[in-house]
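The instructor's notes for this session suggest beginning with a concrete chain rather than abstract definitions. Hand out the sequence below and ask the class to guess, before any prediction is shown, which regions might be ordered.
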Amino acid sequence: MIMMVINKNKLKKIIVFILIVLFIIAGIIYTVKNKTLDTMDILDLAGNNQPYTMGTNENSNYVAITCNVDLGWEDEYIQKILEILDKENVKITFAVTGKWAEKNEDKLLQMKEKGHEIANHGYQHLNYDTLSYDENLNQIKKSKDIIDSITKTESRFFQAPSGAFGDETVKAANDLGYICYKWDVDTIDWMDKDNPQNIINRIKKKDIKNGSIVLMHPTNATATCLGDIISIIRDKGYVPGKLSDVFSK
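After discussion, reveal the predicted structure:
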């Protein structure tokens, strides 16, 4: 008799627990279906404490091309990339470190004058996910001050080097007014610096969608196959452009 009471009590607790879980799941489904979201993922529901991997404009018909310029060994290919972009009439986003910008004002101004967008890539190429809030704030703000001063514009987007975002990185960047972003299409061109066909084959296999963010670097292979990357995006029915083209205003 005692065992029956205990079993009934346990059963009641299990039923209550299951009902609570089902209630929570139903609430999430209802929220996702009924809340108007500007973004194509549900980062807003999570408190926006993670960087965006895609744009937030559902009807942009754009794919953003981003080019990270940070360590300096890629500088010799920047001019070729700019020439190809001119030829293709495409404007992209260059994410630069403040340290690089300090030493390459002429190249940074050339990017801007050609209509390309400049994003903040931190001051130094560090592991930002290991830094404290104050350290992140100092690195990002130092870079912001340098970039914005040179370009005479206010940078809107921030990407941590290597995409290494910690919670304190996102908080610091948000506090400085930045939209944090990563990518959903990686060329991995740093691994195939002299193998453009490998990059082309890789991009062809990617699930490029409206609002996708393509990551590349100014390597020899990237400069060689950039025209092909642009063609792949266009063949999928999208317009290659900047981060501001895929994010809501």
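Then share the key points. The chain has nine helices and eight strands. The CA atoms of residues 4 and 10 lie 10 Å apart.
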